[in-house]
Specification:
This protein is an alpha/beta fold. The protein has one domain: 3-Layer(aba) Sandwich (Stationary-phase Survival Protein Sure Homolog, Chain: A). It contains 6 helices and 13 strands. Strand 3 and strand 4 form a beta hairpin. The longest helix has 14 residues.
């Protein structure tokens, strides 16, 4: 039976993580290692300034006082002898669409698994209700994972519409869309007049064309986007080399 490592960024007590576990427990041997609290937006950060605590919970999950990437690092290279065959991160409470992937702890956990040599999938529900639907999608993908061959340092980013299973229209392979520039931070004051700031809500989509993840989810399809960890803009290398010639 395949060995799966499950993690997330919403924390070890999140309903989405439990839904993912319950959907996959009959399909594989599971190990669950997740942050001890909500670490949404942690991206790929690792904790380097102190040691990490790995705590066994009554339900068999493990919590870590660190980031999603910390959790996957320990889950793959930590106290267990057996390495997983596949890392699945999620089910996130809310979508990870377009340039959300740059900030997402959910995607970062999957990316850490990929960086450590594991096949990896990031799972998100674009909403907060139908985790059972996303769980069924995860089970379907795991069942077919052995037939998928991705290039090195690649992973899948999966976003599931917040719909009952029988209303899902199918699956689409998509590219990332992107949002417009972020809005201004929101000022708040406590009762003593001290000023703090909230990061602004998500901006409107700047690119949600028909082949994007945004469009697929809006139309009721599960979006599956292949991602790569190489952020190099290869098409721009010649332009930058030409620019350096001008400088010299």
């Amino acid at each position: 039976m395949r060995r799966l490592l499950l993690s997330n960024d919403d924390g070890v007590h999140a309903p989405g993580l439990r839904a993912l576990h319950d959907a996959l427990v009959s399909h594989a041997r599971l190990r669950v290692v997740a942050p001890d609290r909500d670490k949404s937006g942690a991206s790929n950060s690792l904790t380097l300034s102190r040691p990490l605590s790995l705590t066994a919970m009554e339900n068999g999950f493990y919590s870590v006082d660190g980031t999603p990437a910390d959790c996957v690092y320990l889950g793959v290279n930590g106290v267990w002898n057996e390495k997983p065959d596949l890392v699945i991160s999620g089910i996130n409470h809310g979508g990870n669409l377009g340039d959300d992937v740059l900030y997402s702890g959910t995607v970062a956990a999957a990316m850490e698994g990929r960086n450590l040599g594991m096949a990896a999938i990031a799972m998100s529900l674009v909403g907060h209700r139908h985790f059972d639907t996303a769980g069924r999608v995860a089970a379907s993908l795991v069942g077919a994972a052995e037939q998928l061959s991705l290039p090195p340092r690649s992973l899948l980013n999966v976003n599931v519409p917040d719909l009952p299973w029988d209303e899902i229209r199918g699956f689409r392979v998509t590219r990332l869309g992107y949002r417009g520039p972020a809005g201004s931070p929101q000022e708040v004051r406590d009762p003593r007049g001290k000023v703090s700031w909230w990061i602004a809500p998500l901006s409107k989509n700047a690119d949600d064309g028909p082949d994007t993840d945004f469009a697929a989810v809006e139309a009721g399809f599960v979006s599956i986007t292949p991602l790569q960890t190489d952020l190099t803009r290869h098409a721009a290398i010649a332009d930058v080399e030409g620019w350096l010639d001008v400088l010299t």
